[in-house]
Amino acid sequence: xxxxxxxxxxxxxxxxxxxxxxxxxxxxxxxxxxxxxxxxxxxxxxxxxxxxxxxxxxxxxxxxxxxxxxxxxxxxxxxxxxxxxxxxxxxxxxxxxxxxxxxxxxxxxxxxxxxxxxxxxxxxxxxxxxxxxxxxxxxxxxxxxxxxxxxxxxxxxxxxxxxxxxxxxxxxxxxxxxxxxxxxxxxxxxxxxxxxxxxxxxxxxxxxxxxxxxxxxxxxxxxxxxxxxxxxxxxxxxxxxxxxxxxxxxxxxxxxxxxxxxxxxxxxxxxxxxxxxxxxxxxxxxxxxxxxxxxxxxxxxxxxxxxxxxxxxxxxxxxxxxxxxxxxxxxxxxxxxxxxxxxxxxxxxxxxxxxxxxxxxxxxxxxxxxxxxxxxxxxxxxxxxxxxxxxxxxxxxxxxxxxxxxxxxxxxxxxxxxxxxxxxxxxxxxxxxxxxxxxxxxxxxxxxxxxxxxxxxxxxxxxxxxxxxxxxxxxxxxxxxxxxxxxxxxxxxxxxxxxxxxxxxxxxxxxxxxxxxxxxxxxxxxxxxxxxxxxxx
Length: 537
Prior knowledge:
The chain contains 12 helices and 25 strands. The protein is an alpha+beta fold. The protein has 3 domains: 7-19 and 178-244, Nuclear Transport Factor 2, Chain: A; 27-170, no CATH class; 249-442 and 460-533, Elastase, domain 1 (Roll), CATH 3.10.170. The strands form 6 sheets. Strands 1, 2, 3, 4, 5, 6, 7 and 8 form an 8-stranded antiparallel beta sheet that branches. Residues 1-55 have low confidence and may be disordered.
């Protein structure tokens, strides 16, 4: 892997080595009935006596008859729109060709050239690495121009175990004259791209548009969740296309929708955005069992491993369940913010460390590349099983990027609003005003907080104290201050409904700063209502 810092030196070296080493279409013995439709035409094999082909046959029809007469079993042919070439064929068996699978494929392509529509003879095509399929060997012959590959234009020849061709796909095309001399160097093509160069540039023809282009194709990774196959015009330097090659899978797992107390029955839910490794690693979260910490961060082990079909089935007492529950909760709250508000600022992988021994708390820390979430275990209570708590901590990570100035001033009213927003969005996600019914058992409480309470501002939370002639700020614990703001938000939920309250509060949150007060936040909510709902609420 080439590091971001070394892309200039190592990337240039890889391209230089490549430069030192470097310098046109397919697809059934019988008398066929060929029916031409306005678009794709399928030719079904029929007996000669049933043939309805006209006496004056086209060149394509005569070529198809000639080809079919040489096969052991006639093929069904699929023609392109202008009937100039067969684009697919199957259901038949070719005659037997000699040699290796590649030699057989080349012999077949040369033999079928008249119906494949190719102006290029088989030896000029590039053979890509052979692979084995359930039917037998498969060889891909790629179209070229002046020795350069024409991207995605190829003849795919699949044989059975006896060496007979049984299936063909053809995407080749006729191309006009094209100058294959590059005016942009490969180094220029990649010079200003951030990230890691995965595959050095290759000069090729891109025939996917209305006109063919000479392009540099290469692969680079600008972020952990992106591996981009990129094509840059070799004449102008314009980026033609990017395709993310990273694939993600969805598994299933048994989780608590809330926590073991509020919803004690585990239910099956999709486990999303997995990277396919079998571990709880995905686009937006990576779940670990906590093993330690240092001045630079946390360490953890990934104990949970379930390969395809990615089924995670753990009972409530299984020590692996907290890792699954944490991964599920993080993705659930991430998807809520993204799907509801289009928020992409947390579209990165948040590391999570759970089951910290003898630690009756949970927290989000902004340290590290993308921050981290930590949840402890005390006695038999593992806070990672409490979706409310995890959603609360994840919301702190959202505040960190949506209202960074508010997040930075973690005291007094700004800090209290940070906590109150975290409680509110945890509750609105689960649909319950209680936060942490399961975790509250650690403190002999029915829940850590209940934001349906009637706490009132300002008398419940005295923000300023006077001593003699000196007035000073009394730094109440921010969760206590939040226990006024969170209930105020829940009152809005009760009055306006979830959809409106969620949108108004999220919009207002994005405007708040480190000097915002409850009063200025109220004004921000009114401004959001004016902007979104024309002041109707």
